[in-house]
Amino acid sequence: MATIITRPHILLHSFSPSLNLNLKPLSSLSLFRCTKLPNSLHSNSITLTPRRSFCSANSTPPHRKSESISIVNDLLDYLNESWTHFHATAEAKRQLIAAGFHLLDENEEWNLKPGGRYFFTRNMSSLVAFAVGEKYNVGDGFHAIAAHTDSPCLKLKPKTASLKSSSYLMVNVQTYGGGLWHTWFDRDLSVAGRVILRKSDNSFLHKLVKVNRPILRIPTLAIHLDRTVNQDGFKPNLETHLLPLLSVKLEDTSSETKEKTAALTSKASHHPLLMQILSEELKCDVDDIVSIELNVCDTQPSCLGGGNNEFIFSGRLDNLASSYCALRALIDSCESSSDLASEHAIRMVALFDNEEVGSDSAQGAGAPTMFQAMRRIVASLADSYIGEGSFERTIRQSFLVSADMAHGVHPNFSDKHEEHHRPELQKGLVIKHNANQRYATTGITSFLFKEVGKIHNLPM
Questions:
Q1: Which of 31, 43, 51 is nearest to 1 (CA)?
Q2: 32 lies in a domain?
Q3: What pLDDT digit, counting tens, does each position of 16-42 carry?
Q4: What's the rounded Cα separation, in Å, for the pair 200 and 198?
Q5: Which residues pair with 168 in a beta bridge?
Q6: pTM for the complete prediction?
Q7: Which residues contact 305 (CB under 8 A, 6 or more apart)?
Q8: 120 CB-near residues (< 8 Å, 6+ apart)
Q9: Is 287 in the same domain as 214?
Q10: Distance between CA atoms of 117 and 346, rounded to whole angstroms?
Q11: What's the pLDDT tens digit per position in 73-101?
Q12: What domain range includes position 200?
């Protein structure tokens, strides 16, 4: 089966150096419960109950069919569903509802109960889910895992129709995050994201869209016109060389084409062809589309690769891999009614947006989303009793794992890694430290996490 080609890393933050965690098997830390995976799967992954498998792109040998119905194929399905941060959140929402979690509205009053499982979304691109232990008392803490749904990509500009060429339909894009932009050239690209539609009663609704076929391409300049590229390096101008090609401009004088062109004149900010493709995908009229928020996406599906199918070949592993594992850990750790029976803490997962650009948006980790949610949860569960410092005591008893990816040693560039700190594939989880406090890990939190790993035989 597979391990992930980039290794997961863990940042650990305890709100209290005196945090008392009962470190024993099947204790209140069951949110982090893991077991070894069979055969060639290694113990830096998590064994989870299979939910579904609809990824037809996986070329799994017949003799491994039974193994393929596993967390690996479920992860592949999640990756293939989650072209954008919107789709990643929507798929997480679907899985939580299917598992019996109750969707909360941030605009409404919350009536929470011990033993309950809940979640809410913000901006359709971030999500907070939690399960309340049946033995929860006011002042007990949260055990939380945080990850992010966004990845570096190209985003369509507000006015997508480029006037750069008189012969081609080009699309205006801008870079998001810190990407390797040369890798976007010569790929089969499409668009996905969120649109706002006008309904027949003049109300509006959000809707997700994904065009499941290649409609865009960023062609590389031929070697014959750039003879020194291999010596000087490929250094594209991100404003002028990174525009995707949508189509050739066709001169069609047919009456049908003229009618279509006339009907699309109100969409001057976007190529009529692009709007037509979106309307067909959404099964609506072009004029019903009043706003678009789209990413450029690679249509190549995530799949297993390597001589022994030991790798996952995929974009967006940073950080959908951590998002998926956190989500499934929460779902599977409270799958039956008895899973929360002896739990005192509140198990929580937060999937944030905009980590790749600093996390300072309303739906990013820099916003008070998690603390607002925690305060509301504590207040709701306190019922009529709210003791002195209830929320503050809760925070001091809480433990947060910030889960993201780390760079495994590249076999062709091993000199890029420090000699004594070389994360190797299939050697376990990575705990990140930084003396300048760029990461939340401390000696205490690192020790606690390693102890949990020892209990479950997870190398780090």
A1: 43
A2: yes
A3: 434 444 444 333 334 433 333 223 323
A4: 7
A5: 248
A6: 0.84
A7: 311, 312, 313
A8: 103, 104, 105, 106, 127, 128, 373
A9: yes
A10: 10
A11: 999 999 999 999 999 999 999 999 999 99
A12: 153-298
